[in-house]
């Protein structure tokens, strides 16, 4: 009976994301909510069922600790770092990272210090708003944040990100162009076509060719490369004191993942990011199933919501000022902020709304750097906040 429960629960956690992805592509309104939020809701519902087999605890411990170390290098293999527009990229990256760091510090001093494990939460927020869910999940593993609090962080992130987008699309983009003294930019037909093509490619099912002969061969290469990276990272981490193992392990995974992206044959494994993203989906439903709604700290949650709101909107304000001082155009400022706060998948949509093809490259470049440095910056920020 125990073995049957293990198999059943494993299938639920590993196959439910596939069903959610299918539903999101079938029903656009679900796609607007996003697979991760839906999986969090399903996971919370599973975790709060009255009768659950005891074996779920084992899988709740095992799956997150396996999914994240595999997902990190996979999602970094395809990163492309180029010299084109290097000066502009450097400006928006420096401004964006600095803005998030300052905003998180201010938010911590005002509200974060009243949140349990506030310094570590600040580190997770820093990683989340410079990289995305991947970085937040990795930092959660490093800091050993309990699942209920991590669920709360992600839930508030969805709410704040929605308000952030409403502001941008409701007049924020025009407002920033006005502040920067820029006129509405006219777009050529060629640029419009290229942007639409990019957005359309985002909507296509990235998993449809995965089980072909070519796709299976690529899966094998991706897994082999990832296992080598994970083994090397673990080897280095084992040389450190036990309390530093997870920190060093995650940072080495990130560093080696970025390093592998400079190898052309690794970078050409175009399914690596999508496979890594699927592992994040499994992580999401599993970690959400640990949440006990009866134990949520609502008072601490209010402070956490305020902490995260300041991190987002104050960082946007600081980013606007610093970019203006560095003579960065308004569109590059906005698109890089979106890449940091919401992650690169949202960049094409905003680029299309701005009718600016060049901003697409700037935003994706900033997001890639955010993925690469988010874990390192998150760990550093947690140490800094602990001293405040």
Fill in the keyword field for this structure.
about 400 residues, mainly alpha, about 0% strand
Detailed description of the structure:
With 388 residues, the protein is mainly α. It has 17 helices and no strands. The mean pLDDT is 83.
Write the layout of secondary structure elements.
Blueprint: H1 2-26, H2 28-33, H3 35-47, H4 56-77, H5 86-110, H6 118-128, H7 133-143, H8 147-179, H9 189-203, H10 213-238, H11 245-260, H12 264-267, H13 272-288, H14 298-325, H15 330-342, H16 347-354, H17 357-387
The value of Rg in angstroms is 21 Å
How much of the sequence lies in strands comes to under 5%
- Supply the number of helical segments: 17
Strand tally, please? 0
Could you give a short account of the major beta sheet?
none
| Model regions low in confidence, pLDDT < 50 over at least 5 residues | none
SSE order, one letter for each helix or strand: HHHHHHHHHHHHHHHHH
> What would the principal axes of the Cα set say about the shape?
globular
Category by helix and strand content: mainly alpha
Terminal Cα span:
52 Å
Mean pLDDT: 83
Share of helical residues: over 70%
What would you say about this model in short?
This protein is mostly helical and 388 residues long. The protein is 78% helix and 0% strand.
